[in-house]
Amino acid sequence: MAPDHPLRIVSLLPAATEIVCALGAQAELVGVSHECDYPPAVAGRPVLTASRVGHPADSGGQIDYDVRDVLKRALTIYTIDEPALAAARPDVIITQDLCAVCAVSLDDVIDVTRQLTNPEVRIVSLQPTTLSDVWGDIRTVAAAIGRERESVALLAHLDERVEDVRRRCKRWLSRSASPAPRVLTLEWIDPAMVGGTWMPELVTIAGGQPLVTRPGEKSPTMTSDQLARLDPAPEIVLVKPCGFTIPRIVKDADWLSGLLAEMPWPAVRERRVFIADGNAYFNRPGPRLVDSLEILAACIHPNAFADFAQKHAAAFRRFGVRHR
Q1: Are 163 and 135 in contact (CB under 8 A)?
Q2: Same-domain pairing of 81 and 169
Q3: Per-residue DSSP letters for 78-121?
Q4: Could you tell me the CATH number of the domain that includes residue 237?
């Protein structure tokens, strides 16, 4: 039954917040997670979650250690402000059931929601692992908040942009008569984790050959020895640690440079290593995955996508590996 008041939406997932806003329901958001920072207009909404780990000064390795330690002790990484959630009086709560490291767990949301005064609250849990799953989640969220018509227009626009990249890549590769370059993406650097889920799809659409993972697969952790033995070796490397902006990646530049300097890869020899904003792009399964695709295309085929390089200039840069 539809509520007899304007819908009250709580999003405990940054990607879900972006989806809600892209569907035109920004005004109906009454609570968000501590990581929901886009679009900028969501600033000021009640923040309903917090993290037990991840001090801004910590290295990537320290954050990884802290996360594993919390999980080892059977604790959740994120906490929910129960009084604030109750005060928000949500009709719909959007969360996820994909990654214990990415956001509040579904079980925690269910447990807390049982205590809310509104017994009709609806929980929408997202679990995308492929690009089509992400588009499906947009439809799911739209149905839950009464924005089905808006979802049709949004998805048509996103599909159009994806197909534009696909067509241009095919045309470029055909003209150059060269094979698609081999691409390795890293979504964490200490330890090194190779991008999985939707990343192989994005690489393929952007005219590259994804290494290590296939669409929908989880992101594997690899040692430096395993990376060095990759055969075939990557011709392009994109580093976009989950939750890290470019300035935050630069703080770990020495560690990253030390790792890459040991790699006998064409990508390192030819200076085709890039870092990108992994907080805003690539790791959020929402509308900005298309922006991520455009950034990836600019890295893989810079001569064909100078327009994307200019459009997203603040979101990525070439990384100079300092050899010892």
Answers
A1: no
A2: no
A3: EEE-HHHHHHH--SEEEEESS-TTTS--HHHHHHHHTTSS-TT-
A4: 3.40.50.1980
The most distant pair of C-alpha atoms in the chain lies apart, rounded to whole Å, by: 67
Per-residue tokens: 92: 């719909």
User: What angle do the packed helices 289-300 and 148-176 form, to 10 degrees?
Assistant: 10
Q: At what angle do helices 14-22 and 131-145 cross, to 10 degrees?
A: 60
Q: What DSSP designation does 276 have?
A: E
The single residue listed with the structure tokens 């609250």 is 121
The reply to whether 50 and 102 lie within a common domain is: yes
Domain residues for the domain of 236 are 165-313
Same domain, 64 and 202: no
Instruction: Report in angstroms the alpha-carbon separations of 268 from 177, 238, 272.
Output: 24, 11, 6
Do 46 and 183 belong to one domain?
no
Q: What is the pLDDT of residues 84-130, one digit of tens each?
A: 999 999 999 999 876 555 556 666 666 677 766 566 889 999 999 99
In a domain, 279, yes or no: yes
In the listed set 109, 127, 145, which residue is the last one of a domain according to the structure?
A: 127
Long-range contacts, 317-321 (Cβ 8 Å, 24+) = 317/246, 317/274, 317/275, 318/271, 318/272, 318/273, 318/274, 319/239, 319/253, 319/256, 319/257, 319/260, 319/273, 319/274, 319/275, 320/257, 320/271, 321/257, 321/260, 321/261, 321/268, 321/271, 321/273
pTM given for the model: 0.90
Strand partners, 185: 238
Q: Number of folded domains in the chain?
A: 2
